[in-house]
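for the writeup, i need someone to sanity check this before i put it in the appendix. the sequnce is what the collaborator sent (i think, or maybe the updated version? ugh). structure was predicted straight from it, no edits. if anything looks off just tell me and ill rerun, i have time this weekend
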Amino acid sequence: MLRALVLLGVFTAWTCGSPQKGERWLLIGDDLAHDRGGWAYQLQQERRGGDLLNVSRPEMTAAFNLNRDRQLNAGEQINNFLRRAYAEMGGLDVVVIALGLNDCRDEFIGRNQERREGFETLLARITTFFAERGQDRPKIIVATPLPLSPEQQAGGGFERAARCIDELAVEIRDAVLAEGFCLTDWHQLPGPATLPHRTSPAELEVAGNQLVVAQLLADCF
């Protein structure tokens, strides 16, 4: 009997607590997620396949039109991203949002209220999208931005980004919990452990990608 209960517990944990290969995922991220060197590729390796639409782009923000490009503003594009996921995959089980780095570029320093409201609007629009359609909301996972060290800020428009990211992480935590989404707090864990694997603000080494993906799966599955 004990052996049967143990086996049942293992089966239940695998079926209910782990990301399944058949799940359809939408990823919305920035420079750290957009290509084969990013954490999205590592995530797909961990999932061992399954449908995944990665709309991440370098310079993607949650709240601003970087270089006046509205296509880089996830808050404005979120409905298009969700519709595309349904059109291309036939459904949607998991949405992952990992933004914030580019919202803290030097050119946006001082625009704290716009940044905060931009994130809140992005998350609220996701809730509204499914409510208006009478659809069950998929699992929504939101990651806080990873910290930057002083050395990693040098050049590239991120000279003042570290403090902004620290403050933004707190605001994202509050917004995510208010919407009832799953929070993976990358700013705290793996947090500083990723710094040795951060070759620039826009790039993580494979070991860093492994850390953030492992944390996401541990927090939300």
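Confidence is low (pLDDT under 50) at residues 1-16. The beta strands are 25-29, 52-54, 94-98, 139-143, 182-184, 198-200, 203-204.
thx in advance!!
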